[in-house]
Specification:
heterodimer, A: 285 residues, alpha+beta, Four Helix Bundle (Hemerythrin (Met), subunit A), 2 domains, four-stranded antiparallel sheet, two-stranded antiparallel ribbon, elongated, B: mainly alpha, 5 helices
Chain lengths: 285, 136
C-alpha cells in the first residue's frame, strides 16, 4: 500500500524530493513491466540485426527468388496461390494477439474465468501458427530440398524457352521472361537443372542450364523464421505456465489486476509485431 | 492505470483488430496487384510498391505498440526510453542496404575486370605476379 500512496503523492507534489526516498516506481510502471519493455527493446535489436542483414544480402545479389513464386503453395494441393497461406498465418497470429488483449482486460476486472478462457484461446492461436510454420518448413525442406546451404529457387536473367520438361510444372517448349523464378527439382538425389535456349538479348540462341539460387536465401529464411518461431514456441510455454497459475488462483491473491498476464501479453504482442516485419520483408517485398 | 472503462476498452480492441486485418488484406492485395497477378498489364514501380507496403507495416506496428501493448497509456518517459533507441535501426537499415547495393557493384566490377584481356605487361613491373596469375 505504501507504494500506491507514494505514487499518488508524487503526482501532485514535488517529485524530486520524494523520488529519492524509495518506494516510488520509475515511469509509474512496476519493475517487472519496465524490464519486460527493455527486454523487448533488446530483442527488437536482435531481430533487426537479422532483418537488416537479410536486406543487405538481398541487395548485394543480382537476382533473388521471387517470394510470390517460392511461397505459392497451400495445403490440400493448392498451387499457384501466391501469399495465400502466409496471409492465413498472419491472421492467426493477429487473432491470437486480440485474444491476448481480451485476457489482459479480463485480468484488470479480476475475472479469473475470463482470463483463463482467453488465455487458452491465445495458446491455441499460437499452436496453430506453429503448425502452419511446420507445414511450410516441411514443404521447403522435404519436397523442395531447400537447406541452409542450398537454394533450389533460382531466377532467370534472360527470356528463353525450355528444351525439356521436369515432370512437374514445367513442360518442354514453355517460355519464360527475365525475372521469373524457377524451382530446380532433385531426381534420384541429384539436382536436375533444365536446359533452356535464350531467346532475347545478346545471348539469343545460346543454350544454358538453370543454376541454383543465392545460397544466403535458405540460411536467412530458416534462421529468421526459425528464430521467430522459437519466440512463438517459448511464448506458448510461458502462456501455459501463467494460465495454470491463473486457473489455480495465484494471481487472484496478488490483487494487482493480473499483472503477470499483462507482462506475458507484452511479449506476445511483440512476437506479433516482429511477424509484421518478417511478413513484409520475406513475403511482400 | 485504466483510462478507459471496461466496455470502452473492449470496443477499442475489436476496432483495432479489424483495422489491422483490413491493413493486412490491403497489403496483400496491393502486392499482388502491383506485381501484375490480379490484372494483366498493371505493374507499379518497385519504389512505390515497397514504399506503400513499408508505410502500411509501420502503421500496423504503431497500432500494435500503442493500442495492444498500451504504450498510449504509459508515461511519456517510458515511451521515449523504449522508442527513441529504435531510431538507430532506421539508420542501420538504410546504411546496410546501401552497403549491400555497393557489394553488388563491386562484384560486377571484379567480374568485368576479370573478363578484360590483359594488356601492357611490363616485364619486371610491380604488377608481374598479379598478371601472371590472371594469364595462368
Amino acid at each position: 500500500m505504501a507504494t500506491v500512496e507514494t505514487a499518488a503523492h508524487n503526482d501532485t507534489h514535488n517529485q524530486s524530493e520524494d523520488s529519492w526516498s524509495g518506494g516510488a516506481q520509475p515511469f509509474k510502471a512496476s519493475y517487472g513491466k519496465l524490464m519486460m519493455w527493455y527486454f523487448l527493446v533488446s530483442d527488437a535489436f536482435t531481430f533487426a540485426g537479422f532483418l537488416i542483414s537479410y536486406g543487405a544480402l538481398r541487395f548485394s545479389m543480382a537476382t533473388w527468388p521471387v517470394p510470390d513464386f517460392v511461397f505459392s503453395t497451400t495445403p490440400f494441393n493448392g498451387h499457384g496461390l501466391p501469399l495465400v497461406f502466409v496471409t492465413v498465418m498472419t491472421f492467426i497470429l493477429l487473432a491470437s494477439s486480440f485474444t491476448m488483449v481480451r485476457a489482459v482486460q479480463e485480468g484488470h476486472q479480476e475475472n479469473k474465468r475470463g482470463v483463463v478462457k482467453w488465455m487458452i484461446l491465445t495458446i491455441i492461436g499460437g499452436l496453430m501458427f506453429l503448425g502452419c510454420q511446420a507445414w511450410e518448413w516441411n514443404k521447403l525442406i522435404g519436397e523442395e530440398h531447400m537447406t541452409i546451404k542450398q537454394d533450389p529457387f533460382g531466377t532467370h536473367t534472360e527470356a528463353g524457352i525450355y528444351l525439356a520438361g521436369d515432370g512437374h510444372d514445367v513442360k518442354e517448349g514453355d517460355t519464360f521472361k527475365a525475372g521469373e523464378s524457377y524451382l530446380i527439382h532433385k531426381h534420384d538425389g541429384e539436382w536436375a537443372p533444365l536446359d533452356y535456349k535464350v531467346t532475347e538479348g545478346a545471348n539469343a540462341g545460346i543454350v544454358k542450364s538453370q543454376t541454383l539460387g543465392p545460397k544466403a536465401f535458405g540460411a536467412l529464411f530458416f534462421f529468421i523464421t526459425g528464430f521467430h518461431g522459437f519466440h512463438v514456441f517459448s511464448g506458448i510455454l510461458i502462456m501455459l505456465i501463467v494460465t495454470v497459475n491463473a486457473a489455480t488462483g495465484l494471481y487472484t491473491k496478488r490483487k494487482n489486476g493480473y499483472e503477470m498476464i499483462e507482462k506475458v501479453g507484452l511479449y506476445w504482442h511483440f512476437v506479433d509485431l516482429v511477424w509484421v516485419f518478417v511478413f513484409l520483408l520475406f513475403y511482400l517485398l | 492505470m485504466a483510462h478507459l472503462t471496461y466496455e470502452e476498452s473492449k470496443k477499442s480492441a475489436s476496432k483495432i483488430i479489424i483495422v489491422l486485418g483490413i491493413i493486412t488484406i490491403s497489403e496483400v492485395l496491393f502486392a499482388l496487384l502491383g506485381k501484375g497477378y490480379l490484372k494483366e498489364g498493371i505493374e507499379f514501380h518497385p519504389v512505390i510498391l515497397g514504399g506503400v507496403m513499408i508505410i502500411m507495416s509501420i502503421v500496423k506496428a504503431y497500432l500494435i505498440i500503442f493500442e495492444f501493448m498500451h504504450m498510449k497509456y504509459e508515461v511519456p518517459g517510458l515511451a521515449k526510453s523504449v522508442l527513441l533507441p529504435t531510431l538507430l535501426l532506421v539508420w542501420g537499415a538504410i546504411a546496410f542496404t546501401w552497403e549491400g547495393g555497393d557489394w553488388l557493384k563491386r562484384r560486377d566490377l571484379i567480374k568485368t575486370k576479370n573478363e578484360q584481356p590483359v594488356k601492357d605487361v611490363k616485364v619486371g613491373s610491380v604488377f608481374d605476379s598479379a598478371t601472371t596469375r590472371n594469364v595462368g
